[in-house]
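// run 5 | inverse folding | seed 20
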């Protein structure tokens, strides 16, 4: 369970598009099956990011892709402008097809991005990114 990760857990938020677990320097997002994730549908998520990290506290977003949903990777362009303190983007996938899609997404952003097959590795990577950036 995501709330039991041995890190500085802040709060869990359930919004229309999914469930998001906020920690001191990273967010684990579990988007609901069938959602169309975009800037409009993600508005409540972005508001929580602003509350917890403002524009100053460095953080990593971890997408725990346990469900299938729609997302246009070209929307990653410019994310640094909206979230200047976003230091990394980790994607956790559980099958070969989604791993290929995630690797393609890596080409659409300038921030460090990693693809993993389990949440623990993504969190470890996130901590390393936060130390080095």
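// decoded
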């Amino acid at each position: 369970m995501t709330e039991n990760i041995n890190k500085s857990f802040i709060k869990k938020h359930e919004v229309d598009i999914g469930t998001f677990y906020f920690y001191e320097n990273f967010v684990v997002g579990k988007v609901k099956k069938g959602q169309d994730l975009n800037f409009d549908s993600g508005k409540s998520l972005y508001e929580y990011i602003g509350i917890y990290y403002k524009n100053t506290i460095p953080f990593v977003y971890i997408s725990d892709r346990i469900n299938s949903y729609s997302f246009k990777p070209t929307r990653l362009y410019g994310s640094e402008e909206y979230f200047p303190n976003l230091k990394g983007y980790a994607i956790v996938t559980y099958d070969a097809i989604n791993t290929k899609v995630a690797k393609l997404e890596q080409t659409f952003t300038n921030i460090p991005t990693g693809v993993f097959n389990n949440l623990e590795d993504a969190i470890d990577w996130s901590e390393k990114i936060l130390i080095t950036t």
